[in-house]
Amino acid sequence: MKHQMKTVLFCSALAFTLGAVGNAGATEAPKDMNFTITKGGDPIGTHTFKFSKRGERLTVNVETHTKVNVLFLKFIYDHSRSETWSGAKLVGLKSKTDDDGTPHKLNIRAKGTNIAGSADGESMSVDGLSLPVTFWNSQILLQKNLFSALDGHNYKLKWKKLPDETIKVEGKSVKAKVYEMSGDLERKLWYSADGEFLKTKFEKKGYDIEWIRE
What we know:
Layout: H1 2-17, E1 33-39, E2 42-54, E3 57-70, E4 73-86, E5 89-99, E6 102-111, E7 114-119, E8 122-127, E9 145-147, E10 154-169, E11 172-183, E12 187-191, E13 197-204, E14 207-213
């Protein structure tokens, strides 16, 4: 009973913090977001979200490019995708990725009550209300299941609200809501009070990787 009460309180508090900026159903398109990707504090790449909206249709173009060449660590990651939303519902997603030599392709769209298409050459279908791992949309924070925007893989997740922090964003100090994602995917995520994505941190090949909003 105590666990259920904590879950209800967490979701209620979370819903209160999720503003229109981070919601695909917002009246206006979010402003474009640019991130510097760092490894141990050193820049290794960039990540961008570019938004355009016409009526209820929101298009999000995403680009991620990283290259690491330090001692015995060599890693290249190139990802591009286009997301299409109608209100808060995903209606299409197409992506292409080079994950250090491993290619991925995803091409899905809304079909009836499902989202279906192909993932790495195989058929894929998920419930029409499912969401991809796309950090600009703070509605993901309410989901126990998300799917990969690279290959459609399903992630089972748990969430924990951490104490607020003040971080630097675009040269200014901003008080951020902090959340911890665990389970099949581990991330620490920072959002503004109105749900705008600010920063993420995770570990890859033993190194701390951060996306920092610029």
